[in-house]
Specification:
Elements: H1 2-25, E1 29-32, E2 47-49, E3 52-53, E4 62-65, E5 73-75, E6 80-81, E7 86-89, E8 95-99, E9 103-106, E10 114-118, E11 123-128, E12 132-135, E13 138-142, E14 146-151, E15 155-158, E16 166-172, E17 175-180, E18 184-187, E19 190-193, E20 197-202, E21 208-211, E22 220-223, E23 228-233, E24 241-243, E25 251-255, E26 260-265, E27 273-280, E28 282-286, E29 290-291, E30 300-305, E31 308-313, E32 333-336, E33 351-352, E34 372-377, E35 386-391, E36 398-399, E37 401-406, E38 409-421, E39 427-431, E40 437-449, E41 452-454, E42 461-466, E43 470-473, E44 477-479, E45 482-488, E46 495-500, E47 504-507, E48 510-513, E49 519-525, E50 530-533, E51 542-545, E52 550-555, E53 563-565, E54 574-577, E55 582-587, E56 595-602, E57 609-610, E58 614-615, E59 624-629, E60 639-644, H2 654-659, H3 678-684, E61 697-703, E62 706-713, E63 718-724, E64 733-740, E65 744-751, E66 759-764
Parallel strand pairs: 1-4, 4-7, 5-8, 6-9, 7-10, 8-11, 9-12, 10-13, 11-14, 12-15, 13-16, 14-17, 15-18, 16-19, 17-20, 18-21, 19-22, 20-23, 21-24, 22-25, 23-26, 24-27, 25-28, 26-29, 32-34, 34-37, 35-38, 36-38, 37-39, 38-40, 39-41, 40-42, 40-43, 41-45, 42-46, 43-47, 45-48, 46-49, 47-50, 48-51, ...
Antiparallel strand pairs: 1-2, 2-3, 27-31, 30-31, 32-33, 44-45, 56-60, 59-60, 61-62, 62-65, 63-64, 63-66
Length: 765
Amino acid sequence: MKRKKTAGYSVAGAFALLLVVKTASAATDYSWTNADGDNNYMNGNNWTTNGVAAGVPEGANNAIIGLDGADKVVLSAGQTNNNIAAIYVGQASDGAFEQTGGKLTATMSSSSFSRVGWGSGKSATWTMTGGYANINAVQIGLDSGDGALFLKGGEMVISRGGTDGTSLRIDNGGTGLFEISGGSLETRTGVRIGGQGVFRVKGAAASNIGIGSNNTLDGYWNQESNGVLQVQVSSNGLRQILIDDTGGSSAQATFEQGAILDVAFLDGYAETNVWTVMTVEGTLTDLGLRFAASVDTNLWDKQVTNNTLIVAYGIDLPDSGTPTNAPPTVDRTLYWTGLAGDSDPTKAGNWATDTAGTPATWGIYGVENGDELHIGDYHLNDGGFVSEVTYEGGTPELQKTLWLGERRTGVFNMDGGILNFGYNGPNTLGSGSADGKGTLNVNAGTLGINAVRMGAAAGAEGAINLNGGTFTIGRGYRLGSLEASIWLGYAADGIGKMTVSGGTFKSRTGLVLGYADSMGEFSVVGSAGSIGIGLEGSLAGFWLQKGGSVLRARIDTNGVSQVLVKERDGASGYVEFENGAVLDLGWMPGVTNYGSWDLMFLEGDNEITNNGLVLASGVDTNVWSFNILDTDGNGKKDTLRVTAYGETPQGTSIPWLIGYGLTEADDLVDNDGDGLLTWEEYVAGTIPTDSSSVLAVDSAEFTGGGYIISWRSVEGKRYSIVAKEDLIYSDPQVIASGIIGLPSETSYTGTVNGATALFYKVGVE
């Protein structure tokens, strides 16, 4: 009996131990109190567990905001909260969570999902304006709660599905709103919108809305009766929703009977046009999508066709089939004709679908992974005219590639809005023959483009001028073992030029100047630009400058913009100047300041390799020089520093000469005829081109037993006086020194000794 009893206790003991382990691994609720009153998410004093101060939530724990009527919580730049289970905003009281920067990861528990608005009659908001958030499934509006999530900036990734396999559930028994007006959204699975849920897209500022774009599952969209999809069109168009088939089977979207589409313009803007609201890489099923009661159906129309939801203003779309102005299949090649009579690329009449000049019926915008654009193509420019296109904003969507100047002259001006060319292949500026001249001017707005090759034929020339806005190159193009974001000069005798005078430039990888006996030029004009090589994406930047290619810098009153060659994820980039690489230095017009400026900095563990960088032939080496230095103290030469200075053999500053319109040859000349050579005027501090500005004694007066000597002086200069008894034999004696000069004239009073005669001389110390 004892053995059986012991065995029974042993089982009970094992069972109790199992319960203890399970309890220890369960998630703990951290409740927000804002005890310090600073709204700081990362202040541990503001969190409690069971009424006891607990520190910042960590591990497989839940962060609860709005349990006891607490106020707003902020996670800001530089702050990180990693690997908690979930965020609950508004569980039993109103709550507000705001992320302005930093990093939040709430994926520790695969079975948890975050909630916004959870509890009868309670209101909650989650606002993201910056930073990065990776979270499990999100439900907005639970159990009669009222929740809203506003994505205005930053990057939000919803990397799992909830209990029903949905990444984003809007209305799960309550009232829910998800609004995106900026930033990027990616989900692993789908979106489900209940009868009291709203999914709102405001304008085109968001960079991405990818449902199913994260990880390996297909996206889906399920919009129930009375659930609302609300889109608001801005002057820059509308960011479309992509239902992605990342999993490789088939994405799905379903509008159930009574689902609502609400559409309007933003900020008083209105335009007769067609916009793509949603594209499904699979099947789109419309069982009864209807307009909201507030939509004027005399002006607005909609159509579901080819797995795409389209809306139109001022255009009647047919009930089925392909609308007159509907987007065609992707991957077209469009050629610029300008037959609409202006430079507007959003007008279909300015484009042809082939080299025979067949007019396009849609224009270039509104198609995901869209069109290859040719501007300045010889087929349509036999008259030799210049094709110039200006983009000021429209309906920006992802385009394929850009060809400028194919045996003719092609110019593209980016003057506003947002535009992306995202195909893996290279964009080309200047190709076909020596007559190919392609120029890209980025003046304002945001332009994203993949790798660029310039001067892709002998004598052909490509040019990029960044004057303002943001210009980003998001990929590299590989040639042999070398992958670069920009090839400044691509084919033998081709020419590639890039000039940065303002705006922001970021590349994914590096720059090559002068590949295959071509010629590359990179010019930094003034100090208004921002240049980051390797700043975009995950690859290190590099700079490879071949012999004969040119790095040009023009200094303004504030110096010059620095070229940052950046390391990424611990991988160092490199900078290499091959033998004969050229450095061209000078000032901007009207500027002649002197000093030293760091023109280039290489981040990381490598150092700049200089195999023979030389100054351009027109650079005055008496004024300009350069050095490659270690400026961060890691023992590696990481900085290219340029300096403007110099002096003559007599010690005269060359910048001082230049300031008076003189050269080194004038140093031994009396230019103003006042008896002093130019170098003597430099020592005296007088003006070498003004005869009235001269070191000279104006008067010498005897006053009883003494005398007063007065001379023309320069304020701040130090003077001394020497005396001699004769002008032939006697040695001069210093009778006064360290006399501080006054403006215009200085005087000295002395006494007379027993000498028969004395001769005095005033000099500069």
